[in-house]
Structures are given as structure tokens and as C-alpha cells.
Amino acid sequence: MNPIGEKYLRKDFLPMIFCPGCGDGMIVQALAHAVDELGVRDELTLTAGIGCSAWIAVYTHADVLKVLHGRAIPAAIGLKATRPSRKVVTITGDGDCLAIGGNHLLHACRRNIDLTVLMVNNQIYAMTGGQVAPSTPFNAKTQTTPYGNVEKKLDGCKVAIAAGATHVSRWTTAHPKQLIKALKTAINHKGFSYLEVVSQCPVQTGRYLLGSGSPEFNLKWIKDHCVKQEDPSKWAEVEAQGNIPIGDFLKLEQPEFMEEVAKMNQRVKEAQAKGGDR
Amino acid sequence: MKKGRIKVMLGNEACAEAAILAGCRFYGGYPITPATEILENLSRKLPLVDGLCLQFEDEIAALVAVVGASWGGTKAMTATSGPGFCLMQEAIGLAVAEEAPCVIVNVMRGGPCSGQSTSTAQGDLYQARYGSNGDYSLICLCPSDAQEMFDYTIKAFNLAERFRIPVIILSDEVVGHIREKVVIPDAKDITLVERKAPTCPKDKLVVFKPEANDVPLMPGFNMGYRVPVISQAKSLNGNRGNAKDADDNIRRIVRKVEDHMDEFAEVKVYGDAKAETAFVTFGSVCRSARSAVDLAKEKGLAIRSVEVKTVWPFPDKLVSEALAGAKRIVVAEMNLGMLQREVQRVVRRPEIEIELFSKIGGIYPQPQEFLRFLEEKR
After folding, report:
1. CA distance B258 to B251
2. Domain range spanning residue B141?
3. Are residues B285 and B177 located together in one domain of the fold?
4. Which of B48, B68, B222 is opposite residue A75, by nearest beta carbon?
5. Chain A residues with CB inside 8 Å of B235's CB?
6. What's A3-273's CATH class?
7. How far apart are CA B164 and CA B90, in angstroms?
8. Is residue B252 part of a domain?
9. CA of B117 to nearest chain A CA: how many angstroms apart?
């Protein structure tokens, strides 16, 4: 086994449940590389919800808390709050993060708590067999939109920026080097990082949305349709072509939640020691 | 007589005070009447002990964060009332399945749905036991006064740590909002229980392999064990299991509680323990029943009042013993007969009808009403 695999895979859990050609295995690898290069393994903590992508966390040899559908972010907050030195990475999918867990995403962004949310976007509910997701394009035919999707899709990066995330990127499984780099930056960023990864699902997205179940076709689709555009004012042009903008979109330095909590606790305790008004 | 500092406080305040003394350092909450004072109190107290009280976006997030904090190595709790308790049900199953010690307070109000936010009720009795999906077990404690809000909060944390389960404190609006005397013992006089951590080599831990008492050792996160904790039915190493693994896992998490009820089950009897007439009550209704027993005594009528303090798992043996020899049994509660059904199940004497004195709509039963019930029903 490759030395990174030897070190970072939970070997007694293999083989993985992922379908042949799935992007999730590539993301396991990218995460392992990022963590190894940063040297933060002992502080690494993973949380996940429900869906194919949640198993990315489980196959990674780290402390992993896999919780309810949509609730990986609150679990991450509980873990971060009890030991702020933890490097908490939440692995979630487009349904988990933007549909059932959308509320938690909004509020974690607003709090600017030091977490990394790695959102794996395959544009569909894959584990349950190919139903429409908030990330599914308009008009797309899925198992639950047999006559075409009449809803507009929700862009997680736009949501994260609007809600106050301080680090926002989108890369793809077709850009493994950039993905590792973005993961490293996101994990190191002091504040809330939202990193979306457009990933291939040949079995559901490929067959129902894109017209082919071939992994090569699906990876090539991502290469052809994900266009680097880091200026949000120009995203409309990219989207008008039916493409998805990718790149590192936002990096802001703002007060981080747990640091503010520590400051508040210190202030309150000092005031109490003096017997004064808090 | 209990020794300690005497304070006059709300039941909800007593709960918050006890949580700090029990070692709670993380509280996830969401405002809801009539439980909000617990959140408000802990948002003032927790920063003073380097804890964190966080008001979440909803009750689901609050309890899931509590589970996260618990695996993070901290004692953690949340409190809510009916509608919030509904939202928490899936996460109660999560705490059960992931064996995360935590405390959940439900200060009951009128239901169903939004019901009566400022009125008392006891309609969540079954929800506290059966609200989440699948087979499981947990412990549910029912305080009747502010002192018991304090005492049972300490007890709840201890039982949660001992059994690695969520422990529910099923209070109600009367108990949460009553302001009365509470004796707060010195911290050194309070016995606290802590979860047991593994000491084996880091790569040798089998994360859900139980000890002899059916409870596995609990490693905190980032201690080097690198444990997989999933919400699915699991095998001993934490991976998704086969049918046999699932069967073993479910039976064990039930057995670890129900085979050890002697450690925590509590039923009190007030009045004449041999009286032929018996009330059976829980929560705030115990108070009114006690006054009824006293009133009856003045009139020369002997009554015993059986108070079920640990309602789940239902203490069959203790309730049965406490009702031995009773000729007339009246279950008094603020719902349409939930406790009554448990008593019917336990007391299998065909000659005795288990009667129900039920008050709903948010009106607390007065002591005189108990006696009137005894007269009119006869």
C-alpha cells in the first residue's frame, strides 16, 4: 500500500462502500495528503452526517464522529468548543449540507467558528438512488423530477459568502493538486472555511444527468465544465454557459468564535475577581 | 437534615446551579417556555468556570452539539420543553447509539404541538421513553420540587457517565417555575461519577467492546485512539455490522441499563404505607397528593401516596411492592392516563380497577380535588 494510505486509511474497515469510479476515494486521498503535509494529525477531528461522502470521514484513520443527516456541523461545534486546539473538518454532501443541514451552515458561517466544511457536491442524492438535490440543475431529470427539475439550484459558495464565512473555495476531483492546496489553506485558516468539491458520481449523476455512467466521461465533464473564475462579479458569465466557477474566492481575517469566547471568559472572571460589575 | 448553603430559587435555577457543580462545561440550548431560565442561568454561570453556553439555531443543533461535546470529553447538557423535545428525538437516539453521556431536561408544558406554553402538563411521559426510533433504553428522572431539580440534576450527570446514556430529567412547568428553598451542599460533599477511559495501547482499543457491566470504556477524542463513532448499528470495532452484530449491539445497550436498575430506581411512599387507599403520582402532582394525604389524615382517612421518581425504565418491582395490600389505587396525573397504563401493567390483580384522576388543560390538581375524587367516584 502507498505510504500515505498505510498511514491514513482505517484498514480494518476496507473495502470502501464507494461505487467504482466515485470521487469520494480521491477526496479521502486529498484529505490524507493535506493533513500529512500540514503535520496536524494528532489534532485532526472529523465529523460527518449521512450520505456517500460521510464515509470519507470514516475511512480516514482519525477520531470520527458520524452523526445524523444534516447535523455534522453542530457536532463539529461541540467538539471544537471542548478543545479549541482541535483541527475539525466536517465532511458533508450537497443534500446533507444545503438541504437538511442548511440552517446549521448559515449559522456556523455567521459565527466564524474555526471549522473546515468540506462539501462534496455531486449534484444529486446518490446514496438513496438519484433523487433531486438543492444542487441539481434546472430542468434535470432525476428519480423524483421525472419530467425535469422545475427548481433553481442553490450555490453553496454564494450562501457561505452571504452568511459570513471567512474562507470560501470551490475545487473539483479533477484538480487534485489544487484541492490538496485548498484543503491545507482551509484547515489552517483561523475561522470558518467552506470548501466545496465538485465530484463525479457516474452511477447516479452520470447516468441520469449527464448521459453516461463512464467514470472517464464524468471526470472529463467536470474538467470541461468547471472554469476557474475567482471574481464573483464574473460568475454570471460562467454560469450562463452552463459552467461552474471554481477557485479560491474569499479569505478574510475576522475575529474567530472560540477566541472571542476565551476573551469573554477571561474578562468576566477578572471582573468577578475584583467583585465588580461584569 | 441536609447540610449546606440555603438559597431560595426557581426549580430551573436549581437545575443550572447543580449542573455546574456536577461538572457540566458545555450547554447547547434554544429558548423555549417554560425551560428558558436554565439556558439564561447557564449563559451567566458557564463563562465563570471556562465553560461554554451556546444558544443554537434550533434544538436539533443544540443536542447534536451536546453529543459532540460529550465525545469531546466534556460533561454536557441541554434543556427544552415539548416542541423542542420533539425536535430532539432523533438526536436522543444518536446519544443512545453513540453511547454519549449527556443530560436532557424537558420542562413539560401543555401539548400537543405548541399547546400551552405557560401551563403545566405531563403529556410527554411516553415521548421521553419511546420518542426516538428503534429499540433502546434510557433513564428518566422526575423531580417534584426545586430541591429535587437540584438533586436529580447531579444524579442525572452521574447516571449518564456511569451508563454512557442520555439521562432525561422530566420536569414540568410547576417544578421549573416554583421558587422555594434549596439546600446546596458543599462541592466536596457531592459525589461525582466520571466515565471510565481506556488505558490499553492506542492501537489495541476495540472501541465498542463492553466491560463486564456491558458498558464500553470511553476514549476522548484526540487522545491518540483515533476512534470511529458512527450512528449506524455497529460491530465491536465501530464499523457497520451484520445482522448478528446489530442484534448484539441493540440488546447490549438495552441490557446495560435494564439489568442494573437496582443502582438507581427510586419510588417514595408518603403517608401511611399500609393504607388501603393509594395514590400513584409523579412529578409536580406528588406535591398536591401529599397535601391530600395530610388533609385526609385530619379527617381520619389513611392514604398512601406512591411517588414514582425514576419513571423509565419503569420500576415494576418497586411500584408493585409500594402498592402491596392496597385495595383502591388511583393514579393521579396531568395527562389522559399514561402512568395509569404502566400501573395497570404492573399491578395484575383482577379485583382491583386502576382508577385515573386526570387533569389536563393546564390546571394543576388541588389537594381537595383528590379527596373529592375519592368520594364521588365511590
Report:
1. 10
2. 5-189
3. no
4. B68
5. none
6. alpha beta
7. 17
8. no
9. 25
Same-domain pairing of B180 and B45: yes
Residue B227 contacts A, CB cutoff 8 Å = yes
Task: Report the Cα–Cα distance between both ends of chain A, in Å, rounded.
Answer: 58
Q: Hunting for cell 447516479 — which residue is that?
A: A204
DSSP string, B291-338: HHHHHHHHTT--EEEEEESEEES--HHHHHHHTTT-SEEEEEESSSSH
Q: What is the pLDDT of residue B2?
A: 74
Q: Tell me, what's the pLDDT at A277? A: 56
Q: What's chain B's average pLDDT?
A: 97
B142 shares a domain with B14: yes
Residue A65 C-alpha, separation from nearest chain B C-alpha, in angstroms = 5
The answer to whether the CB of A192 falls within 8 A of the CB of A111 is yes
The CATH number of residue B365's host domain is 3.40.50.920
Domain residue ranges of chain A, discontinuous segments joined by + = 3-273
Q: What is the CATH number of the domain that holds B100?
A: 3.40.50.970
Nearest to A75 among B47, B67, B227 (CB): B67
Pick from B133, B163, B189: which residue ends a domain?
B189
- The one-digit pLDDT tens for each residue of chain A (278 residues) are 899 999 999 999 999 999 999 999 999 999 999 999 999 999 999 999 999 999 999 999 999 999 999 999 999 999 999 999 999 999 999 999 999 999 999 999 999 999 999 999 999 999 999 999 999 999 999 999 999 999 999 999 999 999 999 999 999 999 999 999 999 999 999 999 999 999 999 999 999 999 999 999 999 999 999 999 999 999 999 999 999 999 999 999 999 999 999 999 999 999 999 886 55
Whether B128 maps to a domain, the answer reads: yes
Q: What is the largest CA-CA distance in chain A?
A: 71
Residues from A contacting B (CB-CB < 8 Å) are 10, 12-13, 42-45, 47, 50, 58, 61-68, 71, 73-79, 81-83, 86, 103-104, 106-107, 261, 264-265, 268-269, 272
Separation CA B96–CA B243 (nearest Å): 19
Indicate yes or no: CB of A71 within 8 angstroms of CB of B73.
no
Inform me whether the C-beta atom of residue B30 falls under 8 Å from chain A C-beta atoms. no
Average pLDDT over residues B249-253: 98
Q: Which residue of A has its CA nearest to B225?
A: A63
The cell numbers describing B323, all together, are 402498592
Q: Is the pLDDT of residue B202 over 90?
A: yes
Q: In B, which residues are within 8 Å of A265 by CB distance?
A: 47-48, 50
Same domain? For B156 and B278 the reply is: no
Beta bridge partners of A250: A168
What is the tally of structural domains in chain B?
A: 2
Instruction: Classify residue B245: in a domain, yes or no.
Output: no
In a domain, B155, yes or no: yes
